[in-house]
Amino acid sequence: MLEEKDGAKSDFVAYLGIKNHERINQLLILPRVKEFFKAKNISHYKPIQEQACISDLDFKKSNFPEFFPYFYDFIVDDIYKKEGKVEAVVKYCITLDETNCSKTCDKTRIRYDEFLLYKEPVFYFIYIDIKDIFDCLRSNKCY
């Protein structure tokens, strides 16, 4: 069943609705996110707001001019430069769309992509395979 997310900023993000999403978050998603950022030596990170989830399609030339204020509001609004170094809490978005993630972490094998500002990461897409979600729903442990 498909459902419309009226509050979503992006027209290109697919959402998965699960009755008991906390189980998936606690047993699958958060452990992977924690492992990924540990491998990247990033200790300050947080997810962007659900309605702010984005897709690679939001960055197409035709969409970006109208999309930039949104990108600024949710991702780069709290970034600053201190003593020549970019300071920020890194934001991330979980994606079910593997095409958003062109890279694979050598240490964790987690697929991802990143946006850099002054050569410093400010945003990550982190891919979660839908098959892993269904496996987690069918078992008592996920990760």
Topology diagram in text:
Layout: H1 21-39, E1 45-47, H2 64-76, E2 80-82, E3 85-87, E4 90-95, E5 103-104, E6 111-117, E7 120-127, H3 130-138
Parallel strand pairs: 1-4, 4-7
Antiparallel strand pairs: 2-3, 5-6, 6-7
Helix pairs in contact: 1-3
Question: How would you describe the overall organization of this protein?
Answer:
The protein has 143 residues and is an alpha/beta fold. Helix content is 29%, strand content 22%. The protein has one domain. The protein has helices spanning 21-39, 64-76, 130-138, and strands at residues 45-47, 80-82, 85-87, 90-95, 103-104, 111-117, 120-127. The chain has a five-stranded mixed β-sheet, covered by helices on one side. Helix 1 (21-39) packs across helix 3. It is globular and about 50 Å long. The two termini are 27 Å apart.
